[in-house]
């Protein structure tokens, strides 16, 4: 199965009312865990690569890993997505390395930590969309800054996230502004700010509408029923994995993630892409700790990595099933990027 663009995948998800988890990868083990879970559930998948991951593993290594995954799992449609691109060059270089989709996060300036104004966001996102669509790649934009409604603060991940505090209006996407933004930029998907944030420490208590504004998604969907909505910072930070982590020497303080049932609620209101990274990190790290604690003489890295892969696989399978993407991979006929480019040109 050829690589698929984000636009085609999310169009299929919208037609059949399901969501697609987008998992971040940095290495082979994460890729194998994600794709094996996709194969076992017949799910399409979005593999995301952050700027931090590209710096860690290198573009050539990541490109070869993804090529190997394609060859090993030929029946699975794979969207390869640049997560939180900070400028035009980052997005274009991703496409040059085989990415089928890019995110231009113009909610922050190029330093990826200073909030940008609306006009800057529109201008840079429009330019990336114009260039990406010329070759058939998809574009995700972002409106509003990801951050906690409890504290007003952001959480940087891989060097991306605002510094300091923001008022509530900047931490929530305005539905009217979203309508204008999508019309002006032509993005294929829109990431919205609803109180979620990167990392494990999202909420100090089980989130309610006061700190997790799912109603914003519903209002945006009412105004933009044909726009694919993206939820960032949507790891659920399972208590079961926190317990394993802490039982074997970890010191993770009490924290709450985004409940799966709230994500499912979002899927009913236009959410089609759900970003998940922390859950895989936590599951893998918990198994590293368990192995180190229970097999103290062990030094073979494979004996640490195999249980970690199994743990990540289990998390992925749970999300594929919960979001409704299980059983959908075999129903998708992939359109080549060259054809997507012609479709974009026709729409212009």
Protein model, in words:
With 348 residues, the chain is of the alpha/beta class. α7 crosses α8 (214-223) and α11 (278-294) runs antiparallel to α12. The chain has 13 helices and eight strands. The protein has an eight-stranded parallel beta barrel, surrounded by nine helices. It is 46% helix and 12% strand. It has a single domain (6-236, 257-277, 325-343), classed as TIM Barrel. The chain is globular and about 60 Å long.
Summed up:
This protein has 348 residues and is an alpha/beta fold. It is 46% helix and 12% strand.
Write the layout of secondary structure elements.
Elements: H1 6-15, E1 20-24, H2 28-41, E2 45-49, H3 51-57, H4 59-72, E3 78-85, H5 88-96, E4 101-104, H6 118-134, E5 138-143, H7 175-185, E6 189-192, H8 214-223, E7 228-231, H9 239-247, H10 260-267, E8 271-276, H11 278-294, H12 301-323, H13 337-347
Parallel strand pairs: 1-2, 1-8, 2-3, 3-4, 4-5, 5-6, 6-7, 7-8
Helix pairs in contact: 2-4, 2-12, 5-6, 7-8, 9-11, 11-12
